[in-house]
Amino acid sequence: MNRILITGALGQLGIEFIKYFTKSNIFVLATDIRECKNEIPCEFIQCDVLEKNKLNQLVKSYKIDTIFHLVAMLSAKAEKHPFKSWKLNIDSFQNIIEVCVDNEIKKVFWPSSIAVFGTDSKLGCVPQNPILNPSSIYGITKLAGEKLLEYSNKKFNIDIRSIRYPGIISMSTKPGGGTTDYVIEMMDSAINKSKYVCFLSKNTELPMMYIDDAVSSAIQLMRADKSKLSVKDSYNVAGFSITPEILKKQILKNGFKIDVEFKPDFRQEIANTWPKKIDDSKAKLDWGWSAQIGFEETVKKSLKF
Ligand code: AKB
Protein backbone atom coordinates (compact mmCIF):
# COMPACT_ATOMS: atom_id res chain seq x y z
CA MET A 1 0.00 0.00 0.00
CA ASN A 2 2.26 2.79 -1.27
CA ARG A 3 0.22 4.57 -3.94
CA ILE A 4 -3.49 4.47 -3.24
CA LEU A 5 -6.45 5.41 -5.43
CA ILE A 6 -9.61 6.22 -3.47
CA THR A 7 -12.92 6.31 -5.32
CA GLY A 8 -15.87 8.10 -3.70
CA ALA A 9 -13.16 9.96 -1.82
CA LEU A 10 -15.31 12.91 -0.74
CA GLY A 11 -17.72 10.66 1.15
CA GLN A 12 -17.90 9.81 4.84
CA LEU A 13 -15.18 7.13 4.78
CA GLY A 14 -13.10 8.56 1.94
CA ILE A 15 -12.18 11.79 3.70
CA GLU A 16 -11.05 9.89 6.79
CA PHE A 17 -8.92 7.48 4.76
CA ILE A 18 -7.30 10.47 3.00
CA LYS A 19 -6.42 11.98 6.40
CA TYR A 20 -5.05 8.67 7.65
CA PHE A 21 -2.89 7.84 4.63
CA THR A 22 -1.52 11.33 4.03
CA LYS A 23 -0.51 11.58 7.71
CA SER A 24 1.41 8.34 7.17
CA ASN A 25 3.11 9.86 4.07
CA ILE A 26 1.39 7.46 1.70
CA PHE A 27 0.55 8.84 -1.74
CA VAL A 28 -3.20 9.22 -2.33
CA LEU A 29 -5.05 10.04 -5.51
CA ALA A 30 -8.59 10.99 -4.51
CA THR A 31 -11.40 10.75 -7.06
CA ASP A 32 -15.08 11.52 -6.81
CA ILE A 33 -17.89 12.34 -9.22
CA ARG A 34 -18.43 15.53 -7.20
CA GLU A 35 -16.34 18.64 -7.48
CA CYS A 36 -13.94 19.07 -4.57
CA LYS A 37 -14.92 22.36 -2.94
CA ASN A 38 -12.78 22.11 0.20
CA GLU A 39 -9.07 21.78 0.48
CA ILE A 40 -7.87 18.21 0.91
CA PRO A 41 -4.28 17.10 1.61
CA CYS A 42 -3.79 15.04 -1.56
CA GLU A 43 -4.19 15.07 -5.34
CA PHE A 44 -7.83 15.18 -6.46
CA ILE A 45 -9.29 14.37 -9.86
CA GLN A 46 -12.99 14.56 -10.60
CA CYS A 47 -13.93 11.24 -12.19
CA ASP A 48 -17.01 9.10 -12.67
CA VAL A 49 -16.08 5.57 -11.66
CA LEU A 50 -18.34 4.27 -14.43
CA GLU A 51 -15.82 5.68 -16.94
CA LYS A 52 -13.46 2.74 -17.05
CA ASN A 53 -11.01 4.19 -19.59
CA LYS A 54 -10.44 7.30 -17.51
CA LEU A 55 -9.89 5.17 -14.40
CA ASN A 56 -7.43 3.01 -16.29
CA GLN A 57 -5.52 6.08 -17.45
CA LEU A 58 -5.34 7.48 -13.93
CA VAL A 59 -4.15 4.19 -12.47
CA LYS A 60 -1.40 3.98 -15.09
CA SER A 61 -0.21 7.55 -14.93
CA TYR A 62 -0.18 7.70 -11.11
CA LYS A 63 1.36 4.21 -10.79
CA ILE A 64 -1.34 3.11 -8.37
CA ASP A 65 -0.75 -0.13 -6.45
CA THR A 66 -3.81 -0.26 -4.16
CA ILE A 67 -7.45 0.80 -4.57
CA PHE A 68 -9.98 1.73 -1.91
CA HIS A 69 -13.21 1.54 -3.87
CA LEU A 70 -15.74 3.35 -1.71
CA VAL A 71 -18.36 4.47 -4.24
CA ALA A 72 -21.88 3.27 -3.37
CA MET A 73 -25.48 4.37 -3.29
CA LEU A 74 -26.69 3.62 0.25
CA SER A 75 -29.82 1.73 1.27
CA ALA A 76 -32.57 4.35 1.50
CA LYS A 77 -31.56 6.22 -1.65
CA ALA A 78 -31.05 2.92 -3.49
CA GLU A 79 -34.60 1.85 -2.63
CA LYS A 80 -35.81 4.97 -4.48
CA HIS A 81 -33.50 4.30 -7.46
CA PRO A 82 -33.11 0.51 -7.64
CA PHE A 83 -31.68 0.25 -11.15
CA LYS A 84 -29.39 3.23 -10.80
CA SER A 85 -28.05 1.78 -7.56
CA TRP A 86 -27.46 -1.62 -9.19
CA LYS A 87 -25.56 0.09 -12.01
CA LEU A 88 -23.47 2.24 -9.71
CA ASN A 89 -22.73 -0.34 -7.02
CA ILE A 90 -22.07 -3.29 -9.32
CA ASP A 91 -20.79 -1.83 -12.60
CA SER A 92 -18.33 0.38 -10.76
CA PHE A 93 -16.98 -2.62 -8.86
CA GLN A 94 -16.63 -4.57 -12.09
CA ASN A 95 -14.71 -1.60 -13.59
CA ILE A 96 -12.35 -1.57 -10.64
CA ILE A 97 -11.72 -5.30 -10.99
CA GLU A 98 -11.06 -4.96 -14.73
CA VAL A 99 -8.66 -2.08 -14.08
CA CYS A 100 -6.88 -4.24 -11.49
CA VAL A 101 -6.52 -7.09 -13.98
CA ASP A 102 -5.24 -4.72 -16.71
CA ASN A 103 -2.70 -3.09 -14.40
CA GLU A 104 -1.77 -6.04 -12.24
CA ILE A 105 -3.05 -4.35 -9.10
CA LYS A 106 -3.45 -6.91 -6.36
CA LYS A 107 -4.72 -5.03 -3.33
CA VAL A 108 -8.24 -3.62 -3.08
CA PHE A 109 -10.51 -2.63 -0.21
CA TRP A 110 -14.24 -2.72 -0.84
CA PRO A 111 -16.82 -2.07 1.89
CA SER A 112 -19.75 -4.42 2.22
CA SER A 113 -22.55 -3.81 4.71
CA ILE A 114 -24.87 -5.32 7.30
CA ALA A 115 -27.43 -4.97 4.51
CA VAL A 116 -26.29 -8.35 3.13
CA PHE A 117 -28.24 -10.03 5.91
CA GLY A 118 -31.95 -10.67 5.82
CA THR A 119 -34.73 -12.12 7.94
CA ASP A 120 -33.27 -15.63 7.50
CA SER A 121 -29.94 -14.57 9.02
CA LYS A 122 -30.55 -14.99 12.81
CA LEU A 123 -30.86 -11.25 13.25
CA GLY A 124 -30.58 -11.31 17.07
CA CYS A 125 -26.80 -11.70 16.64
CA VAL A 126 -25.76 -12.57 13.10
CA PRO A 127 -22.95 -15.11 12.75
CA GLN A 128 -20.26 -14.79 10.06
CA ASN A 129 -21.91 -17.28 7.75
CA PRO A 130 -25.69 -17.24 8.10
CA ILE A 131 -28.18 -17.65 5.25
CA LEU A 132 -27.82 -14.43 3.25
CA ASN A 133 -31.09 -13.42 1.73
CA PRO A 134 -31.28 -9.60 1.68
CA SER A 135 -34.49 -7.90 0.64
CA SER A 136 -33.31 -4.33 -0.03
CA ILE A 137 -31.75 -3.59 -3.42
CA TYR A 138 -28.73 -2.14 -1.62
CA GLY A 139 -28.29 -5.41 0.28
CA ILE A 140 -28.66 -7.35 -2.96
CA THR A 141 -25.91 -5.27 -4.61
CA LYS A 142 -23.66 -5.78 -1.58
CA LEU A 143 -24.23 -9.54 -1.63
CA ALA A 144 -23.58 -9.65 -5.39
CA GLY A 145 -20.41 -7.60 -4.74
CA GLU A 146 -19.24 -10.08 -2.11
CA LYS A 147 -19.71 -12.92 -4.59
CA LEU A 148 -17.95 -10.97 -7.37
CA LEU A 149 -15.06 -10.31 -5.00
CA GLU A 150 -14.71 -13.96 -4.03
CA TYR A 151 -14.91 -15.05 -7.66
CA SER A 152 -12.40 -12.42 -8.87
CA ASN A 153 -9.87 -13.17 -6.13
CA LYS A 154 -9.78 -16.77 -7.27
CA LYS A 155 -10.12 -16.26 -11.00
CA PHE A 156 -7.69 -13.33 -11.40
CA ASN A 157 -5.50 -13.85 -8.35
CA ILE A 158 -6.36 -10.45 -6.85
CA ASP A 159 -6.53 -9.75 -3.13
CA ILE A 160 -9.74 -7.79 -2.58
CA ARG A 161 -10.58 -7.53 1.14
CA SER A 162 -13.86 -6.47 2.64
CA ILE A 163 -15.74 -5.59 5.81
CA ARG A 164 -19.49 -5.66 6.43
CA TYR A 165 -19.88 -2.24 7.97
CA PRO A 166 -22.64 -1.38 10.40
CA GLY A 167 -23.93 2.23 10.49
CA ILE A 168 -20.89 4.52 10.62
CA ILE A 169 -21.06 7.56 12.87
CA SER A 170 -19.12 10.69 11.97
CA MET A 171 -20.10 14.30 12.32
CA SER A 172 -17.39 15.87 10.13
CA THR A 173 -18.35 14.26 6.84
CA LYS A 174 -21.90 13.05 7.00
CA PRO A 175 -23.32 10.05 5.20
CA GLY A 176 -26.29 10.46 2.87
CA GLY A 177 -29.10 8.15 1.85
CA GLY A 178 -28.61 5.48 4.52
CA THR A 179 -31.02 3.83 6.95
CA THR A 180 -28.62 4.30 9.87
CA ASP A 181 -28.32 8.06 9.19
CA TYR A 182 -30.89 8.81 11.90
CA VAL A 183 -28.09 8.72 14.48
CA ILE A 184 -26.28 11.65 12.91
CA GLU A 185 -29.50 13.52 12.15
CA MET A 186 -30.69 13.22 15.77
CA MET A 187 -27.38 14.47 17.17
CA ASP A 188 -27.34 17.29 14.62
CA SER A 189 -30.83 18.34 15.76
CA ALA A 190 -29.66 18.28 19.40
CA ILE A 191 -26.72 20.54 18.54
CA ASN A 192 -28.94 22.87 16.49
CA LYS A 193 -31.74 22.83 19.11
CA SER A 194 -34.33 21.74 16.55
CA LYS A 195 -37.04 19.09 16.80
CA TYR A 196 -36.19 15.74 15.23
CA VAL A 197 -38.67 13.53 13.41
CA CYS A 198 -37.12 10.06 13.47
CA PHE A 199 -37.87 7.80 10.50
CA LEU A 200 -37.39 4.61 12.57
CA SER A 201 -39.48 3.42 15.51
CA LYS A 202 -38.00 4.04 18.94
CA ASN A 203 -37.12 0.39 19.65
CA THR A 204 -35.42 -0.46 16.36
CA GLU A 205 -32.06 -1.91 17.35
CA LEU A 206 -29.21 -1.69 14.82
CA PRO A 207 -25.41 -2.07 14.98
CA MET A 208 -23.26 1.06 14.71
CA MET A 209 -19.58 2.02 14.80
CA TYR A 210 -17.61 5.22 15.35
CA ILE A 211 -15.70 6.43 12.27
CA ASP A 212 -12.25 5.94 13.84
CA ASP A 213 -13.00 2.25 14.36
CA ALA A 214 -14.39 1.99 10.81
CA VAL A 215 -11.10 3.34 9.43
CA SER A 216 -8.83 1.31 11.68
CA SER A 217 -10.72 -1.93 10.96
CA ALA A 218 -10.06 -1.51 7.23
CA ILE A 219 -6.40 -0.64 7.76
CA GLN A 220 -5.92 -3.61 10.09
CA LEU A 221 -7.58 -5.96 7.64
CA MET A 222 -5.57 -4.62 4.70
CA ARG A 223 -2.34 -5.09 6.63
CA ALA A 224 -3.18 -8.56 7.92
CA ASP A 225 -1.19 -11.57 6.80
CA LYS A 226 -3.14 -13.15 3.92
CA SER A 227 -2.57 -16.65 5.21
CA LYS A 228 -4.55 -15.76 8.36
CA LEU A 229 -7.69 -14.69 6.49
CA SER A 230 -10.14 -17.56 6.63
CA VAL A 231 -13.18 -15.55 5.45
CA LYS A 232 -13.33 -15.40 1.68
CA ASP A 233 -16.19 -12.94 1.20
CA SER A 234 -16.46 -10.14 3.80
CA TYR A 235 -15.77 -9.92 7.54
CA ASN A 236 -18.40 -9.11 10.16
CA VAL A 237 -17.20 -6.31 12.47
CA ALA A 238 -19.11 -4.92 15.44
CA GLY A 239 -19.02 -1.67 17.39
CA PHE A 240 -22.13 -1.32 19.56
CA SER A 241 -25.89 -1.67 19.08
CA ILE A 242 -28.48 0.99 19.93
CA THR A 243 -32.08 2.03 19.34
CA PRO A 244 -33.30 5.58 18.60
CA GLU A 245 -34.74 5.73 22.14
CA ILE A 246 -31.39 4.75 23.71
CA LEU A 247 -29.67 7.41 21.61
CA LYS A 248 -32.20 10.04 22.69
CA LYS A 249 -31.59 9.18 26.38
CA GLN A 250 -27.82 9.40 25.90
CA ILE A 251 -28.12 12.81 24.23
CA LEU A 252 -30.21 14.03 27.22
CA LYS A 253 -27.58 12.59 29.61
CA ASN A 254 -25.00 14.79 27.89
CA GLY A 255 -27.01 17.86 28.83
CA PHE A 256 -28.63 18.53 25.44
CA LYS A 257 -32.36 19.08 25.16
CA ILE A 258 -33.98 17.18 22.31
CA ASP A 259 -37.56 16.75 21.22
CA VAL A 260 -37.98 13.59 19.11
CA GLU A 261 -41.10 12.43 17.32
CA PHE A 262 -41.04 8.85 16.02
CA LYS A 263 -42.63 8.58 12.60
CA PRO A 264 -41.40 5.43 10.82
CA ASP A 265 -41.37 5.56 7.02
CA PHE A 266 -40.20 3.16 4.27
CA ARG A 267 -36.78 2.93 5.94
CA GLN A 268 -38.36 1.00 8.82
CA GLU A 269 -38.95 -1.91 6.46
CA ILE A 270 -35.27 -1.94 5.52
CA ALA A 271 -34.19 -1.79 9.18
CA ASN A 272 -36.51 -4.68 10.06
CA THR A 273 -34.43 -6.97 7.85
CA TRP A 274 -31.09 -5.92 9.35
CA PRO A 275 -29.32 -7.40 12.40
CA LYS A 276 -29.61 -6.15 15.95
CA LYS A 277 -26.15 -7.39 16.87
CA ILE A 278 -23.15 -8.80 15.01
CA ASP A 279 -20.89 -11.67 15.91
CA ASP A 280 -17.41 -10.54 14.87
CA SER A 281 -15.44 -13.36 16.49
CA LYS A 282 -13.87 -14.40 13.15
CA ALA A 283 -12.38 -10.92 12.63
CA LYS A 284 -11.11 -11.00 16.22
CA LEU A 285 -9.53 -14.39 15.74
CA ASP A 286 -8.09 -13.93 12.24
CA TRP A 287 -6.66 -10.40 12.38
CA GLY A 288 -7.02 -9.22 15.96
CA TRP A 289 -9.95 -6.88 15.46
CA SER A 290 -11.43 -5.16 18.49
CA ALA A 291 -13.54 -1.98 18.51
CA GLN A 292 -11.99 0.77 20.63
CA ILE A 293 -14.81 3.30 20.89
CA GLY A 294 -18.05 2.51 22.66
CA PHE A 295 -21.47 4.13 22.50
CA GLU A 296 -21.06 6.66 25.33
CA GLU A 297 -17.76 7.92 23.95
CA THR A 298 -19.18 8.09 20.42
CA VAL A 299 -22.04 10.31 21.56
CA LYS A 300 -19.77 12.52 23.66
CA LYS A 301 -17.31 13.02 20.78
CA SER A 302 -20.10 13.65 18.28
CA LEU A 303 -21.95 16.22 20.40
CA LYS A 304 -18.73 18.12 20.98
CA PHE A 305 -18.20 18.42 17.29
C1 AKB B 1 -26.98 2.40 5.24
O1 AKB B 1 -27.69 2.72 6.20
O2 AKB B 1 -27.41 2.20 4.10
C2 AKB B 1 -25.50 2.19 5.48
C3 AKB B 1 -25.15 0.76 5.72
C4 AKB B 1 -25.50 0.13 7.01
O3 AKB B 1 -24.56 0.15 4.91
N1 AKB B 1 -25.09 3.00 6.58
Strand ordering within the main sheet? 3-2-1-4-5-6-10
The overall pLDDT, averaged over residues, is: 97
Shape: globular
| Number of beta-strand segments | 12
* Amount of helix: 40-55%
What is the correct CATH architecture of the largest domain?
3-Layer(aba) Sandwich
- Major sheet summary line: 7 strands, parallel
- Nearest-angstrom radius of gyration? 19 Å
- Output the CATH class name of the largest domain: Alpha Beta
Ligands in the model, by name, code or SMILES, are: 2-amino-3-ketobutyric acid
Structural class: alpha/beta
Total domain modules: 2
> What do we call the CATH topology of the largest domain?
Rossmann fold
Low-confidence stretches: none
Report the β-strand fraction as a percent range: 15-25%
Number of helices: 11
